[in-house]
Amino acid sequence: MKKLQDKKCRICRRLGTKLFLKGKRCYEKCPIDRAGAIPPGVHGRKFSRPTPYSEQLKEKQRLKAIYGLNETQLKAYFEQAFKVKDEPTDEVLLKILESRLDNVLYRLGLSPNRRTARQLINHGHILVDGHKITIPSYRVNPGQVISLAKGAKDIPQVKEALEEGASVPSWLRKKALVGTVKELPKKDDIEIDADVSAVIEFYSR
Q1: CA 169, CA 6: separation in Å to the nearest integer?
Q2: H or E stretch covering 66
């Protein structure tokens, strides 16, 4: 576990910003808070002039790290978003990413981070409209209800998330341990430390 946590810290240091990949732990003893966003490795900070390509690549890596995606997944989501002609591609891509079940669980404050949310879903602790869903990438729709399976509220990670009491975005509604998707989010509703437009430009080359 310690090795995995250190790996998450290296991702944030490499991308130059806090991505809060470890939830509450990112507010405590964060290497970036202590020493700044110095890239990992024996060579430390490198001074090189960024290019448009390198900036776009960095934003793509940042988006993948935030949502816990691999290259194949993110590219597939981009291709889906690109086919929608009546909305900006970056806004459609964000809607797709935000509507993933693991992200919705995190946004509802039922999980301290998206990685833990994926574990809860994989282990069958999450219900959608009363049915067990074990696919983290499952896309939720407006009107669907997300809840915890029996006994899930006693899981330490769930308790940790509930104690934090994270604020719920306006496109979701939470009552006790039950969340409802009111609508799909608009771009202005989403707080994310990544330039999605740069990601679109990267894949559109």
Answers
A1: 29
A2: helix 52-67
Residue 80 CA to residue 94 CA, distance in Å, equals: 11
Instruction: Tell me the average pLDDT across 116-140.
Output: 97
Say yes or no to pLDDT of 146 above 60. Answer: yes
Determine contact, residues 106/192, Cβ cutoff 8 Å.
no
Write down the mean pLDDT value for the chain: 85
Q: What pTM does this model have?
A: 0.79
Rounded CA Rg of the chain: 18
Q: 100-183, superfamily in CATH?
A: RNA-binding S4 domain (3.10.290.10)
Which one, of 24, 28, 33, 1, lies nearest residue 12 by Cα? 33
Q: What is the pLDDT of residue 41?
A: 55
Pairing of strands 145-148, 131-132: unpaired
* Domain coordinates in residue numbering, the chain: 100-183
The pLDDT of residue 4: 42
The two tokens of residue 54 are: 């390198």
